[in-house]
Amino acid sequence: MAPGVNSSTAPYQCAYNLLRAHAGAVKAFREMGISGEIAYKNNDFVGTPWRSNSSEDTEAVERHAEFGIGLYANPVYINGDWPEIVKETLPESYLPRFTAEESADLKGSADFFAIDAYASQYIAAPASGIESCATDMSNPAWPACNSVMLYDSNAGWAVGPSPDPASDSWLQATPQMLRGYLQQLHARWPTNKMYISEFGMDEPYESMRTEMYQITEDSTTTNYFMTNLGEALLAIHEDGIPLMGTFSWGMMDNAEWNYGLEPKFGIQNVNYTTLERTYKRAAYALSEFFASHGVTNANSTTV
Asked: What keywords is this UniProt entry annotated with (predicted)?
């Protein structure tokens, strides 16, 4: 955080400013009669209770959804206002309240729902309990009062294959969760169109490889894309999810947030000395998948 920024209140003031800016941009877009559709993209997931017989974990999933995606999606896709559980927990000094005019501008200010659907994981209640956490600002889990779990509560198995260590705190390959993930999104924040605006995997330890034949054999990433796309097709044809397209992350290796060049999310390797790009197996697999499953018409290509 920049010097002088209050790390406790800043995320919520930022959410307020971001949503007002979104509403203003959409209003201008529509008043100018620009041809096209407009929205913003969401990040995170709803989640699954870590312990199926725990009412606290079920409540923790609700808090994860409302303090995560819901913080941004409820005002736009539901009622022009913050989720109730968020308003009950956060005072106005943390989270400014919308005026009637702001709420009216926000509600319906998106033409589709976009989600960065990297993974979906288990959610557990904090050890102190939700009620104790929600009323205690000094609790490390406050205000969302939930924990993301990367392994199951029975045998301790990982939810899915792990990524590069630089991302192992949040990312796993969880294609088995994707259909339920998309169903949860569509049930909570329904729209006529949905896009997976990002999904991808950083190949474990790829930054340590020096031989190109090892770098291009990105089997974990390739399997991630193929299994998730297979589940995406089932979500469309079996579950009726209005999924219109997917966008992989990323086109090439990039500088990734706090970890610089270590995580390799690209479907092309980049030599940062010569800037030469080399396709990895995932690039060919994606190309073949869309060539064999795409339906093309005069206006678009969809899966």
From this structure: Hydrolase
State both tokens at 183.
Answer: 């169903």
Greatest Cα-to-Cα distance within the chain, rounded to the nearest angstrom: 60
The pair of structure tokens assigned to 221 is 């990433």
Task: Indicate the pLDDT class of residue 296, thresholds 50, 70 and 90.
Answer: low
Question: pLDDT tens for residues 246-257?
Answer: 999 999 999 988
Q: Please, are residues 189 and 78 in contact by the beta-carbon 8 Å criterion?
A: yes
Q: Do residues 262 and 164 lie in contact, with contact meaning Cβ atoms separated by under 8 Å? A: yes
Name the helix (H) or strand (E) containing 26.
Answer: helix 10-31
Q: Around Cβ 218, how many Cβ atoms within 10 Å?
A: 26
Would you tell me how many other CB atoms lie within 10 Å of the CB of residue 258? 7
115 three-state secondary structure:
strand
Cα 131 from chain centroid (whole Å): 27
Smallest Cα–Cα separation from 245: which of 256, 232, 227, 260? 232
